[in-house]
Design brief:
Strand content of chain A: 25-35%
Number of strands of chain A: 9
Oligomer: homodimer
CATH architecture of the largest domain in chain A: Alpha-Beta Complex
Number of helices of chain A: 5
Pfam families (chains A, B): NUDIX, WHD_NrtR
Helix content of chain A: 25-40%
Distance between the termini of chain A: 33 Å
Shape of chain A: elongated
Radius of gyration of chain A: 20 Å
InterPro entries (chains A, B): NUDIX_hydrolase-like_dom_sf (IPR015797), NUDIX_hydrolase_dom (IPR000086), WH-like_DNA-bd_sf (IPR036388), WH_DNA-bd_sf (IPR036390), WHD_NrtR (IPR054105)
Order of helices and strands of chain A: EEEEHEEHEHHHEE
DNA sequence: GCAAAAGTGTTTGATATACACCCATGC
DNA sequence: GCATGGGTGTATATCAAACACTTTTGC
């Protein structure tokens, strides 16, 4: 299992990383999942892209640390934040590092509207979540795992609206589902599904300016944003 | 949030703990969930019961550490082992400790047959999972969380058979479900549910010695035991 | 034969899907 | 008026729960 040969009395280092998702329109105008990565500026994996994160401070809670990272790298606030998994294989650096690092990974969602304001710099760039380059450490696997969790969670819980602004049409909400799940949904059935769960309520307003019948606007009903 | 006042450059300590479940017949003969706890022999929470666990060794994988703990405290091997959650609130010791400890918690299942051989000593005792005393740290919450995960997992995955020995009757399997979920299930519907999932197959044998029609024996079909 | 659990069959209701259709607006 | 997506209605399939019934053993 382990390829580590050096033994020491040192304890493993603890880091917190965050997989951040948002939705952005791609070239053909459809929404697509995007995630920000940071370029590593030192060994191991120097120059390669990696998940944003850093060592856990003694006086900082895990979720707080994840939020911090998000703010520091993108300038954004998470609309949703949840612990994903703790990754700690002895050989997860693939032999590229002597140091043992255990990463507690969170995953976060930010609004599509806010995400447009996100910082893009030489060392922070957004990628399409399904077209990532080869990342440092085991970070490709981690993103895959987070994607699976997001898709799964979308189906049994009701977090889709966090991608949207406060008021939205059901067509917009459906577009979120379709982008995340990667398949088309029947508008009629989708409407019934959403209405039956009681997660949205009408605002009373409609969205004007479309070429056709103006759709009703909805808002999300009160629902706990997770942190644990 | 935090009640910590001291700041230091120290890094948080990393520990791995394990919530261990098995099924044991209670006084009325019905199966009930039991879990082993260890008595703390030093501050904080000296003398109180706590989850088995210990600091993570630099050259040890997370799941391996959890297995180790299980073996050391009970003498048993896990039949199922999965990461539960990383608990790391700054104040999770409730002010009783100056040290910051982040615990990566696993949950494990051991067979009811094996569990009878488990060690019971002055400092290791088995408790009914729903009648625990007040535990050290936030361990009561952790066990509750693990219980929820077990019940949930039982319904959508097929891990119930790990409590049983290799060959079992459907009535025994149903008894496991009933004990974990805490409600009775229709024998006929239960049979169909199990058969439709294809998780069991007939051994060809029947169980003799009952007062009535001898039930068929089944074994679990090949299925991945998780570790990640 | 009778009791008791094993095992089978049938009915019913809830829910998801497919798809036909009407509605309201901009042009 | 007509194109277009918004929104509603309805038939069908699938599946879970309830429950009646038959089978096979020990006594």
């Amino acid at each position: 299992m382990s390829i580590a040969t050096a033994r020491s009395t040192e304890t493993p280092t603890l880091a917190v990383s965050t997989v951040i998702f948002t939705l952005r329109p791609n070239d053909s105008g459809a929404l697509q999942l995007a995630t920000p990565l940071v370029r590593r500026i030192r060994a191991p994996f120097e120059g390669q892209w990696a998940l944003p994160g850093g060592p856990l401070q003694v006086n900082e809670d895990l979720a707080t640390s994840a939020s911090h990272t998000l703010r520091d790298t993108t300038g954004l606030e998470p609309r949703y934040l949840e612990q994903l998994y703790a990754f700690g294989s002895v050989d997860r650096a693939g032999g590229a590092s002597a140091e043992r690092v255990v990463s507690i990974v969170y995953w976060a969602l930010v609004g599509a509207d806010e995400a447009e304001l996100a910082i893009d710099s030489e060392n922070v760039q957004w990628f399409w979540a399904d077209e990532l380059p080869r990342l440092a450490f085991d970070h490709n696997q981690i993103v895959e795992y987070a994607l699976g969790r997001l898709r799964n969670k979308l189906e049994y819980s009701r977090i889709a609206h966090v991608f949207l602004s406060e008021a939205f049409t059901l067509a917009q909400l459906r577009e979120v589902y379709e982008a995340v799940l990667g398949r088309e949904l029947d508008p009629g059935n989708f409407r019934r599904m959403v209405e039956s769960t009681g997660t949205v309520e009408e605002t009373g307003e409609v969205l004007a300016g479309t070429r056709h019948r103006p759709p009703k606007l909805y808002r999300a009903t009160i629902q706990a944003g997770e942190t644990k």
